[in-house]
Amino acid sequence: MKIGIVGLPNAGKTTLFNALTRAGAETAVYPFTTVDPNVAVVEVPDDRLQPIADVAGASPTIPETIEFHDVAGLVKGAAEGEGLGNRFLAAIRETDAICHVIRAHADEGVPHPNGRVDPERDIDAVEAELTLADLERAEGRLARVARQAASGDPEAEAEREWVQRVIDALERGDPARSVPAPDGVPDAPARLQALTSKPVLYVANVDEGATDVPQAVAGRAERGGAGAITISARIEAELAELEPAEAAEMRAEMGGSESGLDSLIRAAYELLDLVTFFTAHAGAEARARSLRRGGTAWDAAGKVHTDIQAGFVRAEVIPWRDLVDAGSYAAARERGAIRTEGRDYVVEDGDVITIRH
Ligand SMILES: Nc1nc2c(ncn2[C@@H]2O[C@H](COP(=O)(O)OP(=O)(O)OP(=O)(O)O)[C@@H](O)[C@H]2O)c(=O)[nH]1
Ligand SMILES: [Mg+2]
Fold first, then answer.
1. How confident is the model at residue 224, as a pLDDT?
2. Which residue stretches of 173-203 are H helix?
3. How many angstroms separate the most distant Cα atoms in the chain?
4. From the CB of 10, is ligand 1 less than 6 Å away?
5. What spacing in Å lies between the alpha carbon of 33 and ligand 2's midpoint?
6. Which of 31, 69, 303, 329 gives the lowest tally of CB atoms within 10 Å of its CB?
């Protein structure tokens, strides 16, 4: 799962990215991750994993990971495809969600591309480029589906109406995600691939010690259906240089408890609308894995291994809390707390699953 970090030049994207990289996963553990200087593979913190590992007698623990991509700073006119603009838009198109960094700190030592700190104007500037790019794409799509609809294809007609509504929304300045997928054509959004249909998290890069999301950012988040958090990118980058214990001490001194990066990673993970399930076996690893919401035991098996999926017999499922309360798999089994499920079982967040194959 990929999250693109976007924002105006000097907003603090790379500072934040560097903090994530240093705090990030030991990439060697995740052999299929290409090593790219613009990609940070980070572990998703999950307080459930260690207790599950403990009762299962499993070690080590392997958290789920997500990728953050440091997308080049937005240049005005990106939507017209000038120079870096194309690359910028293409990079965003490949991501599953957008983390939009907004300059909200007042440090005069850091020049602002537009001369003055103004979070709302900055959000507008970035979103205007994404909206323009989407408009152009939607106009092209409209022409195509209109031709198909003209031949009397009802599905094409439903899609045509939907694309027209998306265009109307974009012209009002609303994101494509504000227009629900049309009945009967659930694939229409995937075919349009609008940038503004991706979930968004606003990250207000605030002065050290500030904790409230600036009013202007909170308001925009509310209206556009986006998430919003604050972070001090510079502080996070400095803390990421320290040993974990030292960093925790510093954080406590500054009055914070949870790492800003942890909150960011968790908020970004939540954007993706996934559920987390766990696998844990005595003498082997305990692992957190993500699955799209609505995914089945069969899908979960595929996440573990294609061979296991191919040989799927049944899934043994227990909510993580019940397993931890029981104290062991054996005790949970005695209590009858472990259910047997078939391949169509819809996995719930927090399920601990053993696939029999
Ligand atoms: N005071 C302060 N300065 C910051 C903070 N975050 C970033 N900066 C500074 O702002 C400047 C720009 O930060 P970058 O992270 O390079 O910004 P960017 O968004 O990657 O910029 P481009 O790559 O040009 O688009 C650097 O000098 C950072 O040290 C912060 O939280 N507080
Ligand atoms: Mg940068």
1. 87
2. 188-192
3. 69
4. yes
5. 22
6. 31
Neighbours of ion ligand 2 (CB under 5 A): 13-14
Pocket perturbation via mutation, ligand 1, pick of 14, 71, 114 by most ligand atoms within 8 A of CB: 14
Pocket test for ligand 1, best of 234, 236, 239, 261 (most atoms within 8 A of CB): 234
Question: How far is residue 201 from each of residues 39, 52, 68, 100, 225, measured CA to CA in Å?
Answer: 18, 30, 13, 6, 9
- The pTM of the full predicted model, rounded to 2 decimals, is 0.89
Q: Give the C-alpha separation, 100 to 253, whole Å.
A: 28
286, 52 contact by CB (below 8 A):
yes
Half-sphere exposure of 191 (CA within 13 A, CB side): 18
| Distances from the Cα of 160 to the Cα of 77, 143, 147, 339, angstroms | 28, 9, 9, 46
Looking at residue 259, its pLDDT comes to: 80
For residue 30, the model assigns a pLDDT of: 52
Q: Do residues 179 and 165 lie in contact, with contact meaning Cβ atoms separated by under 8 Å? A: yes
Q: What are phi and psi of 261, to 5 degrees?
A: -65, -40
Which helix (H) or strand (E) segment is 319 a member of? Answer: strand 314-319
Two tokens, residue 195: 């940038």
Does ligand 1 have an atom closer than 6 angstroms to the CB of 38?
no
pLDDT score for 71: 83
Which atom of ligand 1 lies closest to the CA of 73?
25
